[in-house]
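--- STAGE predict ---
source: upstream dedup step, 1 unique chain passed
mode: sequence only
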Amino acid sequence: MTDLQVARISSRPLAALFSAFVLLAAPSTDPQATAQDRLTLPFKPEVGSRTGYAIVKTKRRSAGHRLERDLKTTSEAELTLLAENDQGFLFRFVIRGTAATTPGARQPKLDRLLSRMAGITSGVPLVYQADGAGTPLYLINTKEVMQAFRAMLPELRAVVRDLAREGIVPPAERARLEASVQGTFDALTSLSDRELAAVVLEEVRLLFAATGRDFPIGRKESFETETTIPLIGQAIRVAGERRIKSLDQDAGIAVVGIETVYDRTQLLEALAEAAGNAAGSEAAEAERHLQTGLLALDEFRVEESSLHMVDLENGAPLALRHQRTMDLGDKTVVEVTKIRRIRQ
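--- STAGE serialize ---
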């Protein structure tokens, strides 16, 4: 498999739907039961405060013991609390300097393309409304973000032309890569306001998943909830466990663990139905085969686990490690996001 095959982004309707699922599904972790030995973590940020974060994301896809794709992105971000209002808090989040690499491949031009595609909002301020616990509710400057997406397309096309001109990409690969770039652009620019916010604020949503909430100390607590996948529109059951794994009063730090598993049957049915609905007249037969294949999968599981380090004094998120594992028949995709606070 070539480096470009490893890096290629699929533009098939089913792949787009599944990508939307992993980006947009955001199960609630609000507690549904009360018990002793619990702690409500504070969330008392100061207006005007600015915090820097380092973000490292990896995505590995394998079939059996064979690695098919390995991608790593690194970036830094700044989070500023602009104001407090009756809904909660108004934040600005800016990602800077995203760099993507395919470990084992030394192709600076290809890495430049991957970096630009991974850093779709690099340098674009994301102004958003959050609730009282810091969870993003909606994006304020949607038009500005969409303008940044549209400005990105000519740049990506120019990089693809450079890859072809220098012989890094053969003609057939160039056509496929151009289709991937266009497919990514089309998918981003067709998002609703709600879906756009979920995509560009994913790191923020993960970072604030434990702030301002109530958790049991030490023991695990089971919970069930539902999440709606916007592009599919169906509610999916989510089950999980949560707890405060460690509490250091002297250091003023709590470590929270959250684990979730999506209901397999509901998820398969929703994806299969959405794949059929997305098919055009010419692709209907192929999509029906995809529906059948989805429902026949023996191994299909999506689960997430995360560790959150939270400041006990003001509730600020200090660090996060989030892992999403997707078992898709004979393939496994593991995505890991690590975020830590840094000095500015």
